[in-house]
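We both want to read discrete structure tokens more fluently, so let's practise on a single case. Would you supply a protein for us yourself, any chain you care to pick? Would you write everything just below, so we can both look at the same thing?
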Amino acid sequence: MFAQLSALWGVVSLGLLWLAWRAAVARRWSLHRNLMIFLTLGAWVFITSYLLRYGQPGAMPEIDPAYIPWLAIHGTLGLVPLFGASLLVISRLRHGPSASHLNRHHRLYGRSLMIVWVFTHLGGIANYFLFY
């Protein structure tokens, strides 16, 4: 069941990322901010759930060793936007829109992180079809 919920989260979060991007383009800052906070919190819930589910001995399904590099890349890249988005959200909430380096360069970091975040979610959906 965790695999199905993970794939569903991947699809939903891709849609929400797209909506957040469209909100930013349309200068609907409040909607953009709320969507990004929700997505960042959702990503932390997912990672925590993943670690609780698969962090126990014997809980991980059998995986062909050929897929280990893919899983390592996917997992590592998945942490980049998670930590990056978390830093952006925290910086925005603590310092306002222009008080810190992260906030002054929010667009640049956001665009870069979004590309990696989309790749990560697409990879998570692909994992569902590869392993379940």
The chain has a mean pLDDT of 87. Helices lie at 2-25, 29-54, 68-95, 101-104, 106-131. The chain is about 80% helix and 0% strand.
